[in-house]
Amino acid sequence: MPFADAQESVSPLAQTNQIIDTDVHETFPSWLDLAPYLKEPWRGLVEHKAWSGLSFPFAYWASDGLNRADSQPDSGGPAGSDFKLFREQVLETYPIKHAILTGQFFPGDMEAQFEFASAIASAYNNWVLENWVSRDERIFTSLHVAPQDPIAAAREIERLGDHPHVVQVLLPIGPAAYGDPFYHPIFEAAQRHKLVIAFHHSDRLRSALLKNRYYIEWHVNVPQGAMSMLTSLVCNGVFDKFPELQFAIVESGFSWLPHLFWRFDQNYRSLQQEIPWVKQLPSKYIRERVKFSTQPTEDFSAANWLRLIEMLESDRMFIFSTDYPHWDFDAPEESIPRELPADLRRRILYENARELYSQKLEALA
């Protein structure tokens, strides 16, 4: 029965607040769990362990590696693979109205065997719909695709884009500059199905120096990828070509936005003749069409939040996220200062995401 594991009530805080968590990193216990959703020859590659999955070049120095210490399931599977534990630690701890899954791997990071990447993406989408989405009506998910084969990615969007609990297409920041027209079939399909395009950094993200010796360097430099992605989208006319498409930048910070706005607009005024198809100031496109997840939230005071919002001239750009189950998990009461005006906290914790994903969330209300 759909949503068989859903609970009738959550935290008592739900009587006064609602939250949409826009970045939950669920995963499967083992690659073998995807085998039933694959056809040959790809199924055999997984079953015979001929493929070891994707890898990250750094060791993690947190007490439990990438993840918070209490998120490891008793079953021994990886953190984020136990639905009941996630429900206990997030859905039942905070007044979560909706949670949006983003996964823990990107088929787009595969640098070869693109057909296999597309097959793995489809298998994962099927697995998460059956094993997570169907278990609780609060859960929505992202479609994983292999953007290195845009036509296959568009087919996957056509296949599942109308599912009522699929709200966005997730693309990795790292391997590609998505403003390039090569990737536009993905945007065309997403716009047709009224899905958000979400970007999340991947293991292949590199800083301007290309290689970093330390994990902390990589982690600090993650926003560079998001900044470059936004300039690619604007300069290649994506916002004009796909006027109904909305975007989200997930887990890449946001305090760098004033710098990007000011520098981008200044250069546009001087160099617009190079990109005449771009009809508005870059900051206007970004302010009106892109939202940014709050995790990882710097240690902002309420006063700093208000200053940032004043510089950006908008309180509509932020969507709350926990980044469960990772080590830098953001609890809502700690990351969004209680000293902020109540209406602003509600806008960050709930309203902005509700508006972004309204096509699907309101259809099920």
TrEMBL record:
Does the record bear ATP-binding in its keywords? no
- Gene Ontology process terms (BP): secondary metabolic process
Kindly state which keywords UniProt assigns to this record, in alphabetical order.
Hydrolase, Lyase
Q: Which SUPFAM superfamilies match?
A: Metallo-dependent hydrolases
Looking at the record, the residues that make up the Amidohydrolase-related domain are 79-357
GO cellular-component terms in the record? cytoplasm
Gene Ontology MF terms in the entry: carboxy-lyase activity; hydrolase activity
List the protein's name: Amidohydrolase
Q: What is the scientific name of the source organism?
A: Ktedonosporobacter rubrisoli
Classification lineage: Bacteria, Bacillati, Chloroflexota, Ktedonobacteria, Ktedonobacterales
